[in-house]
Amino acid sequence: MPTAAKTRATSPEPLPAKGPPITPVLGIAGRWQVAAAVVAFLALVVALLYSGAAASRSVSDPGALVRWGLPVSKVVHNIAVSTVIGGLIFAVAILPRKIGGRGKDSGDEHPLFARAVMVTAIAGAFWTLSAVAVLVLTYADVAGQGISSDTEFTQALVYFVTGIETGQAWLAVVIIAALVTTVLFGVRSLMGLALTLILAMGGLIPPALIGHSSSSSDHEGAINSLALHLLGVSVWVGGIVMLALLSGILAGRHGKVADSKAGRPGDATERTLRRFSMLAGFAFFTVLASGVINASIRVTSWADLLGSPYGQLIVIKTAATLVLGAIGFMHRQWVIPQLSRKGSLLSARRVLWQLILVELIVMGATSGIAVALGRSAPPQVTTYAPDVTPAFILSGYDLPPELTPERWLTEWRLDWLGIAVALVGLVAYILGVVKLRRRGDKWQWFRTVNWVVGLIVLTFITSGPPAVYGRILFSAHMVDHMALTMVAPIFLVLGAPMTLALRALTPRGDGSRGLREWILIFIQSKFSQLVTHPLFAAANFAGSIIIFYYSDIFGFAMREHVGHVLMNVHFTLTGYIFILTMIGTDPLPRRAPYPMRLLLLLATMGFHAFFGVAIMGGTGLLAADYFGNLGRDWGQSALMDQQVGGAVAWGVGEVPTLLVAIGVAIMWSRSDEKEKRRVDRAADRNNDADLTAYNNMFAKLAERDARQPGRE
Do 360 and 414 belong together in one domain? Predict the structure, then answer.
């Protein structure tokens, strides 16, 4: 009996036997997958020859092996890291882990999940080896000498990876790739794979910090747009590669998965395509928008775009991206809906794999062009001018004009990373509200307005005058900091995004984990219980200020782009979590009672006052090697401006905290009213049974005392 039950649970639903025999569509053959890889290298060769990037140099030529080996290694590296990221996304968010839709650790692994993890581990090995090759060949290319095994070459290579920024970046990639590969060969839990995915995405950061982007006129915009571009490309290309490599299983007998909700097996191909299609749509717009932004920073005129090999390669790459977007649109609008119709199943599957094959080939060609583009010199100069200012050396930008009241609204420098976060948050929120409305559920307009206002405030803080002058003036930086910590989070928390996501997202029944399942896991995790504990949230909110400003972390955040981004992320999340524990309605592991909330808020107000007064009375300049060397010839001295910043920390920090305290008091009052109404309704239902029992208890006590001798 148990054996039969197991067979029924794990076997897919048999296809109907009626009608003519159907010839199976066995996905994409291996020879076509190899052909796509060959196309990538052919496109690379043609693009390198066209741009002249692989031509021999008249001075310090490293040799043909380095000139051609470096771009080939980069193509392998890019495809491998994309496959790793795409495979991990498929494993943790798209494919079922167990046969029969079981989400527990018991049972056999689903063939799709097992194949995805195996392919990802193999791709990780290629990623590691290709990263090592890129590291060595990059040094040889920079040094202008061929590969050698002598001691001098080795010593210079060691100095390159330890003392030069480019070498350090590729050494970080090698370490991350090796760690990811090691984990992939031993970990099968979804949580472990999810953490590995985060680590793998971190491997995209070092390449974004070097090369043309790091020395562009708008280097932070170029770095942010390139990082977004690499992330979008990795998700998109990796997903298409995984579809091709999983096509044999999807088209075979394991192409059905159990569904505990529907009560019958479902089509794995349709579900996989639907889930990846939404993700690919976001990736397409990210790749296209970030590519256009990055190109506009490096190519500033139509003549450079159309008249230089660099610009022409950009045009070809953009056209290929649009073609891929059109194919993805065909997938979503025609092919995927056809997969659910039995009459057209065979033809839809054939067209599906044909389109994916075309995507794979076009993506391979685009990858080759992208590597050749990175090896080509852009029309704009990417080196520092001889008369570069101290402000440009320290902050990456020239001094803005003197700060005036009107310039608090007019001086902008777009932070594309912050804009991307705001746009994704806005689109996702609107899609969730629309889905609820179509389903007939209600969603308070007050929450939507607060969420939109919060995103606008966040964009103003990260791209507007607070960000521009926050790199020059400590007082403006403190406005930026306090707004990130206390202003934007209030509106974002009142938007209740987690509640909306949990209501709008559909639970899965096939054993895979979608966004809804991961949100619930995160909310219930030990980490969430720690960081959202009211005492920890308050201590983190207040204590991190002292650690940040009175250590070298502050100077690192002002000088380095990565430090600046991490600073913004930390203070935004710190403020969001603290406000969430005070007035949030999203689900939390535990909530503090209202008296404790008010006490924590009062303590926070006192701490902000203490911190502000300490800054106002300080006689030493914080991050003196930065603020003291900007060469600013307008405004107050750096020390006086810092003292003004202390007043800002005191004043700006107190007002939002007071508003939150008022909100807590209102919520407390409403909670008491709700409890009173609940008690009144219960009394109406049972005719004041609780009060009657209470009075009867005292009556019995009085009667017992009266019967005792010696009592009056």
Answer: no
Q: Indicate the residue among 375, 396, 419 that finishes a domain.
A: 375
Q: Give the span between the Cα atoms of 27 and 357, in whole angstroms.
A: 9
- Indicate if 425 and 546 belong to the same structural domain: yes
**Over 131-188, what HEC string results?**
HHHHHHHHHHHHHCCCCCCCHHHHHHHHHHHHHCHHHHHHHHHHHHHHHHHHHHCCCC
Quote the Cα angle for 517-518-521, to 5°. Answer: 90
pLDDT confidence bin for 278, thresholds 50/70/90 = confident
Query: Any residues with CB less than 8 A from the CB of 5 and at least 6 apart, and which?
Result: none
Burial class of residue 318, CB neighbours in 10 A (0-12, 13-18, 19+) = middle
User: Which residue is associated with the tokens 């969730």?
Assistant: 432
Q: What is the pTM assigned to this prediction?
A: 0.84
Q: Is residue 7 part of a domain?
A: no
Q: Is the pLDDT of residue 265 over 80?
A: no
Is 706 inside any structural domain? Answer: no
- 429 pLDDT exceeds 90? yes
pLDDT of residue 17: 38
Torsion angle, alpha carbons of 208, 212, 216, 221, to 10:
-30
Q: Which residues form the domain of 441?
A: 409-686
For residue 262, the 8-state DSSP code is T
**Which residues in 262-283 are b (16+ Cβ under 10 Å) and which e?**
eeebbbbbbbbbbbbbebbbbb
**pLDDT tens-place string over residues 458-483:** 999 999 999 999 999 999 999 999 99
Q: How far is CA 623 from the centre of its chain?
A: 30
Closest CA relative to residue 458, chosen from 450, 371, 563:
450
**Closest Cα to residue 558, out of 347, 396, 337?**
396
Q: Identify whether residues 337 and 431 lie together within a single domain.
A: no
Does 518 share its domain with 605? yes
User: Which pLDDT score is estimated for 678?
Assistant: 59
Please give the C-alpha separations between residue 148 and each of 38, 157, 185, 265, 698, in angstroms, as whole numbers. Answer: 29, 10, 33, 59, 98
Closest residue by Cα to residue 33 from 234, 237, 244: 244
| Mean pLDDT on 401-416 | 90
User: Do 371 and 444 share a structural domain?
Assistant: no
**Are both 365 and 474 inside the same structural domain?**
no
Q: Is residue 689 exposed (0-12), middle (13-18) or buried (19+ Cβ within 10 Å)?
A: exposed
pLDDT given at position 223: 87
Q: Is residue 247 one of the residues assigned to a domain?
A: yes
CB atoms within 10 A of CB 126: 18
Q: Is the pLDDT of residue 687 over 70?
A: no
Confidence at residue 253, expressed as pLDDT on a 0 to 100 scale: 54
Question: Are residues 112 and 250 located together in one domain of the fold?
Answer: yes
Backbone angles phi, psi at 252, to 5 degrees: -95, -155
Of the two residues 441 and 345, the one the predictor is more confident about is 441
Q: Are 87 and 133 a contacting pair, CB within 8 Å?
A: no
Domain assignment of residue 172, yes or no = yes
SS (H, E, C) 416-465: HHHHHHHHHHHHHHHHHHHHHHHHCCCCCHHHHHHHHHHHHHHHHHHHCH
Is the same domain home to 348 and 489?
no
Distance set, CA 62 to CA 58, 67, 132 (Å): 10, 7, 18
Is the pLDDT at 50 greater than 70, yes or no?
yes
Long-range CB contacts for residues 328-334, cutoff 8 Å, separation at least 24: 328/277, 328/280, 328/281, 328/284, 328/359, 330/355, 331/273, 331/277, 331/355, 332/277, 332/281
Give the domain-ending residue among 352, 375, 398: 375
- Taking the CA atoms of 4, 8, 10 and 13 in sequence, report the sign of the dihedral they define: positive
Number of structural domains (the chain) is: 2
Render pLDDT for 191-248 as a digit per residue (tens, 0 to 9): 999 999 999 999 999 988 886 555 556 778 888 888 899 999 999 999 988 888 888 7
Sign for the pseudo-dihedral over CA of 209, 212, 213, 219? positive
Mean pLDDT value across residues 546-567:
90
